[in-house]
Amino acid sequence: MSSKLPHNKSMKTMWSQIVSPWVDAGLYVIAPSQCHSCKQLLEHQEKWLCKSCLLQLQPAPEPKCTRCSAQVGPNIDTTNGCIYCKQDRFQFERVISYGFYQDKLKEVILRIKHLEGEQLAQTMGSFLGLHISNTLQLKPDLITCIPVHWWKRLIKGHNQTESIAKGVAEVLGVNFGSRILRKVRFTPEQSRLLPTERRKNLRRAFACTNHSLVRCKHILLVDDVLTTGATANNVAKVLVGAGAKSVIVAVLARSFGK
User: Fold this and answer.
1) How many structural domains compose the chain?
2) Measured between alpha carbons, how far is 39 from 36 in angstroms, rounded to an integer?
3) CATH no. for residue 87?
4) What is the pTM of this model?
5) What is the pLDDT along the chain (258 residues), one digit of tens a residue?
6) Strand runs labelled E in 5-133
């Protein structure tokens, strides 16, 4: 009996290799997939995004500020920050961004804010995870995301930063903590406020609900866009206050709007 087992396994593997491409091709004919971004039909070998969208969604090139991930000129020392962040006191160690809030990436981020963009958000999270893994060799202990108020989530139907974070966590092979942070106070949209107002707007707006999961952990905090860093800084402050060893922020895009 044991002598036949390897043969049976090899036969199953062989048939799987023969049949799978035909099954995939049949499924493509019956229900062809759409690009998660532009909704065009994907070619048979394409996955998630079409070639055109993929070309437009490559990671932004270096150099970037090592502290806030802003685009900087060559040969500039950003150890202590750049013109955008050197006056700021952050509770997080640094920011990792996939790109800048412009062109195709901006279009995608606006799309993922809606319920129908949930799968696209997770796909972009996978790309962010690959960028972190391939470029920065980062392996945090825990991944979490910026929480939204329950009322806002009820209206929108989903939290796009959670979908992004799940994509990152899957690629990095790190646990995603979905219930360690909570937004305890409803606040106006940050994008409608001046930078000084954004900092006041978020004071005491977040809380940690599970200190034991956070304590002594190196945490990767995921968001969609970082502008002034006020939101990420307030959440990082809560995590550090709950005992986290360090917090690094990862975002799809770095923005410079006011």
Assistant:
1) 1
2) 6
3) 3.40.50.2020
4) 0.83
5) 344 444 555 545 544 554 444 434 443 344 458 888 888 888 877 778 899 999 999 999 889 999 999 999 988 999 899 999 999 999 999 999 999 999 999 999 999 998 888 999 999 999 999 999 988 777 899 999 999 988 888 888 889 999 999 999 999 999 999 889 999 988 877 777 776 777 777 888 999 999 999 999 999 999 999 998 989 999 999 999 999 999 999 999 999 854
6) 94-100
Locate tokens 């970037």: which residue? Answer: 64
129-146: b (≥16 Cβ within 10 Å) or e: bbbbeeeeebebbbbbbb
Residue 152 belongs to domain spanning: 57-254
Asked, for residue 47, whether it belongs to a domain, the answer is: no
Distances (CA, A) of 47 to 17, 34, 154, 169, 252: 19, 9, 31, 19, 20
* CA 144 – CA 208 distance, rounded (Å): 11
What are 187's two structure tokens? 């606040």
- 15 occurs within a structural domain: no
| Half-sphere exposure of residue 100: CA atoms within 13 angstroms, side-chain side | 14
- Compute the distance between CA of residue 107 and CA of residue 114 in angstroms, rounded to an integer: 12
- Decide if 96 contacts 248 (C-beta within 8 A): yes
